[in-house]
Amino acid sequence: MSLVSEHVGQTKKFPRSTVVVDSSAVPSPSPSSPSKPKPKRNHYTPVWIVLVLLLPCIALTIYYARYGLSGPLLPDSIIPSPSYAGVLFLVYLDGVGLVALTLLLSRNLIRAFFEKRNRTLGRGFRSKLVAAFIGFSLIPTVLLALVASGVISEVIEVWFNDQIMHVLRDSEDVANLYQEERAALASNTARSISKEIYREDILRPEHRELLKAIMARVQQEYHLAGVEVFSPKMETLARTMDPQLSEAVLSLPVGQLVLQVLDSGKLLSSTQEAPVGRLIRAGAPIMGGEKTDRVNGVVVVSSYVSESLLVKMQGIGKQFAEYRQIKSMKTPIKGGAYLFVGVVTLLILFGATWFGFYVARGITVPIQRLADGTEAVAKGNLNINIDVKATDEIGVLVQSFNRMTADLRTNKSQLEEVNMSLLKSNVEIDQRRAYTEAVLETIAAGVLSIDTMGGISTFNPSAERILGVKGDQLRGRPVYEAFKEYAWHLFQKAYDQILVEHADSLSMEGLMETPNGRLLSLGLTISRMKNEGGQELGFVLVFEDRTEFIKAQKTAAWQEVAQRIAHEIKNPLTPIQLSAQRLRKKYSEQSPDFGSVVDQATGVIVHEVNNLKSMVDEFSKYARMPLPKMRRVSLHEIIEKVVSLYASGHRDIQFVLRMDEGLPALNCDPEQLHRVFVNLFDNAIQAMNDQGRIWVTTEVDWRRHRAVVRVGDEGCGIQPGDQEKLFIPYFSKKRTGTGLGLAIVHRIISDHNGTIHAENNHPKGAVFTFDLPV
Fold first, then answer.
1. Beta strand ranges found along 429-504 (DSSP E)
2. Is the pTM of this model over 0.70?
């Protein structure tokens, strides 16, 4: 068996402390009416009567408390024993006599005190003065009482030593724990054997020897009296007993326990008294299977407690009970002795002492409570509240103290909440910072961040690899100084543009030379960084090297162009070859219609050569397209001019214009944009077979600072798979045309730092969307 100990830590908290102090004064009795003086003998008669009755009562209390105890203790009763009630009654009579004696001895002093109190002014000062007077009067009396009480306490403590009480209690606890441990051992062992039999399925007859071996091993390992296994019919299947035990112990009946376990299906235990000792038995059911509650058998484990150990355990319990019975009279004995000392003390100066403490309580007790509360606050316990019933200066002081502790508790709670919130925020910030740093370390794109002061704060490893500059050389430097030193004009242009346009982000592509002389084709995006409150934190510039990608793209594009040029050239060569072969054949045959054949063949050849020349001219124009000549013009004027040209020449075409009046003038080449709209309108008209509607829409996206233009038609639309090939040179689905129109459009839009894409229009047709910088 293995023991597992679990330690649970608990946070120590101060309990809420409330101190109740009543500093109200005793109301003054009405002065008695004047009476004739009585003889001295009659004046002391009540005192002597009380003394005659009180002293024998105290003596009887001490005698019965010491020698008159009888009967067993009643642990569940308020009164430990019947004789204890008699002693308590005597103590009660002693108390009544003491109170009567106190009133008799102090009545004159009480009357004089209240009469004087009614004639004095200044309640607070008067109370302190009276308390001081009574204090001086009580000094000899208190000393006498302390000495007598100390002697009595020492004598009684010698009679009732706590160490003896602790030893007897611990001995009884050890005996009880031993018996409980034997019972727990039997229960746990029975449960363990039951589970093992169920798990290994060794209840079958062929496993009987294995079952006996397991039982013998368990019996020897845990020093048990015996282990037995019974069938549901209460037949003994296996039995292992300690040979050192007598037959009188082993023959105790076990059938009742087995029957109860079979009926309930639960672990049960019982204790049986043997002629020589005690036998503790535990029975555990052996279940039949996972999906049934049927009991296949019962395991009974027996643990033996020897006769000698039982005798010692019973002796310890009996001695402890007797000692408790005697010690239960400790308080009455001590009370009687103190009462005797009190009677003697009262005969000296009890009246003054009682009033002195009563008056002083209104001052000293609240101050003491305040001192204790202040000390507790100094140690960190703010759960202090003093409840005082006073309206004088002490009450005001206590109320101020309570308000102070309440404010301290509130402030401490708020500080703890703020501290926890700060700790949580710091952990989240650290996690985010670590995550951001990990991303910056592993991202393939270069990242350069600029703080609000215009200094470079971040330059990740990918940026170092792309630009060939170490981050330590840039971090903390002004951005203009770094860009100028390394001639990063593309970065400078993007940074200046986002500052001038007040844009949130913008993208740009261009060429830039590194310090080691490499010419890179970069694509970059610069964005403003803002926190959750909208406060600007600076800028972040993300860039990537597209040199190899553009080279591969250009290579693939020229390969595609070469293939399409070869295809386009091959198409007219076939009829030219056939016409030449036909001429040669007719000539060799001296055919009479040779003249007409020559005329037809040469016509075909001339026609196809003209087609080749037209194709070469278009390609030459595409290849030698000039750079755009930028100037500020109105995009709407360009659109209206092109629309007016087509509206007059195509009567069956309807143009629907939706212009954004807020669109400003654009920095563009008007001639090239004129050509863009011409090519787009030609494609739309051919797709609609010279009949239908063309939509032209313009709008401004101020967030991106882009002008968005859409040209839509209601033609045949774009076939699946052709959308990615529309802007490739020489791609065309028409029988006529070179396939360079949309390629030229894409080239012009790209030269203007714009983008273009095509998609199907709804319900039919196609729509081309392009945007230009504003």
1. 446-450, 456-459
2. no
